[in-house]
Amino acid sequence: MTAPPHDCLARNEWICGAYLSTRRHILWDAVLQHLRLTGLSVLIGLAVAVPLALAARRWGWAAGPVLAVTTVLYTIPSLAMFSLLLPVYGLSATLVVAGLVLYSLTLLVRNILAGLRAVPEETRQAARGMGYGPVRLLLTVELPLALPAAMAGLRIATVSAVSLVTVGAIVGFGGLGNLIYAGMNTYFKAQVLTASVLCVVIAVAADLLLLGVQRLLTPWTRAGRT
Length: 226
Description:
Blueprint: H1 17-22, H2 24-58, H3 60-75, H4 78-89, H5 93-117, H6 121-129, H7 134-165, H8 176-186, H9 189-217, H10 219-225
Helix pairs in contact: 2-3, 2-5, 2-7, 2-8, 3-5, 4-5, 5-7, 6-7, 7-9, 8-9
């Protein structure tokens, strides 16, 4: 009887240190692509969501259409979304980023708008009485008070983006999703498990980082609980 191989790669085990040591450059490149796609899509989504939320707050009639459109976009399955964007962007990283931006809008717009609406009217009136103009009122009063709700939406949008980036593997730009997809096609256990665990680590780390940023930017929320 032939003895089993000593190499965990040859035995195709789920947990394999040899995979980490021999494929670390591949893993690092995949992690960097995953982070780039996630970060870029969330930043662009935030840049689009803030004006939309401000417009919806400023003109009440716009809130319904803005929330309706962003909600409908979020209900489109990811494969269908990428297919609809394919004629515009082709097989590129831009296709993945565009899809993730559209998905992030419903979470970001809804939470930013909720935060702005939660600012007490007496606070606005007091600021106006102190001579605050519309821009100063927005930047120094309304947006800071809306930060807790906005950051909650940003955290959810970021974690969702980390997950959805993996679907980009269908067009070759999925970060760690590329490794998961290739590993599942060949039943490469160590690759599937390692890439999946790294996705979870990135999502948890991003959420904790944003939570820390939120606590730094909103110290009054902690003071209110003590």
